[in-house]
Amino acid sequence: MYDIIIIGAGPAGLTAALYASRAMKKILVLEAVSYGGQIINSSMVDNYPAIPHTDGYDFATRLYNQVKELKVDIKFERVIEIIDQDKYKLIKTKDNTYESKTIIIATGNSSRKLGIDKEEELVGRGVSYCATCDGAFFKNKDVAVIGGGNTALEDAIYLSNIASHVYIIHRNDAFKAEDVLIKTIKEKNNIECIYNSNITKLNGEEKLESIEITNNDGTIKTINVSGIFIAIGRVPENEIFKNIITLDDSGYILAGENCHTNIQGIFVAGDARHKELRQLVTATSDGAIAATEAIKYLDNDKM
Ligand SMILES: Cc1cc2nc3c(=O)[nH]c(=O)nc-3n(C[C@H](O)[C@H](O)[C@H](O)COP(=O)(O)OP(=O)(O)OC[C@H]3O[C@@H](n4cnc5c(N)ncnc54)[C@H](O)[C@@H]3O)c2cc1C
Questions:
Q1: Does residue 259 carry a catalytic annotation?
Q2: What's the pTM?
Q3: What digits encode the pLDDT tens for the residues 157-187?
Q4: What secondary structure does DSSP assign to 240-282, as a single string?
Q5: How far does the centroid of ligand 1 lie from the alpha carbon of residue 187, in Å?
Q6: Domain check: are 78 and 148 in the same one?
Q7: Are residues 107 and 6 in the same domain?
């Protein structure tokens, strides 16, 4: 029986592990993919206090190593269900069932999908959600970025230094991004902005060959591209908890600053939580708070 099982090894989960381990609790971290969470996809992190000019991989690796130094048990298994047995909780993965007195959910969020035909089957064959991970595969090719926020514009700028031509396809008539990014986009002569348009079809069998875009006036156009980078926002990963945990309308777990969910002994930290600002600094802050609350719960002997 563990004291605390942490679901997710992103910044929130790893920070929770740091705090819980230093309090000498018996903990396990379960991670579905790889350590670090979303930030691993970022080529530049410049707003984390006291660590200027770093990149996401470096940030995540430092945190991971800090946690591993404490001999924290981290297993790479996706959690598929949690069951509340009141005094203790069951955490199920495909192959195992673990028992713990408390749980910290730190499952973050993931890229929103377009939801069109062939999107899933062409992932890794022209469809990507991460310019910094996959951009290098498109050297001197034509690509498109879908979206109109900061991430889409950052992706387009990054790709403009690798690809021959970068289209930005945005469903509205103006970008919703920082002025400095919009200015940079305008200065790049290999970036072309297509406004008021949605991507409606992906063409290609073995790999992506072209995309169909439909203008808000109904005009349809085909553009030949080898890759598309989808940057249309993020969605929470909380479906598996919804039977017992209360979510808000957007699927985020309802909890205040103390990170308590509606179930005693189950806490939530980071981007998975209902909140205003989803950033590293708020994720790590939540991780510290959730662990401290779990420790208090254990030490008050509410078991
Ligand atoms: C491209 C990009 C750039 C960014 N740049 C910045 C920046 O410069 N500054 C900044 O402050 N923030 C930035 N952010 C936001 C920041 O990365 C997030 O706020 C932060 O990572 C949230 O941490 P988290 O631990 O809550 O969630 P996540 O980082 O999403 O980590 C959640 C982890 O849980 C795992 N998981 C999910 N479901 C399960 C399951 N069922 N079982 C087991 N594990 C599971 C996931 O695999 C993941 O590893 C950026 C985000 C992106 C995408």
A1: no
A2: 0.86
A3: 999 999 999 999 999 999 999 999 999 999 9
A4: GGTTTS-B-TTSPBP--TT-B-SSTTEEE-GGGB--S--SHHH
A5: 31
A6: no
A7: yes
Residue having the nearest C-alpha atom to atom 35 of ligand 1: 8
Among the options 58, 84, 130, 248, which is catalytic?
130
Which of 104, 107, 281 to mutate to test ligand 1, by most ligand atoms within 8 A of the CB atom?
Answer: 107
- pLDDT per residue as tens digits for the range 37-93: 999 877 778 889 999 889 899 999 999 999 999 999 999 999 999 999 988 999 999
Q: Identify which of 219, 259, 264 has the alpha carbon closest to the alpha carbon of residue 244.
A: 264
Q: Are residues 22 and 101 in the same domain?
A: yes
287 CB less than 6 Å from ligand 1? Answer: no
Q: How much distance in Å is there from the Cα of 188 to the middle of ligand 1?
A: 30
Four-residue CA torsion sign, 228, 234, 32, 155: positive
In degrees to the nearest 10, what's the CA dihedral of 137, 154, 146, 37?
A: 70
Task: Identify whether 202 is part of a domain.
Answer: yes
Active site residue 130: yes
Residues 15 and 93 in one domain: yes
CATH code, domain carrying 249: 3.50.50.60
* Ligand 1 contact, 32 CB (< 6 A): yes
**Considering the domain boundaries, does residue 32 fall inside one?**
yes
Is 118 within the bounds of a domain?
Answer: no
Q: Identify the domain containing residue 101 by its residue range.
A: 2-111+234-299
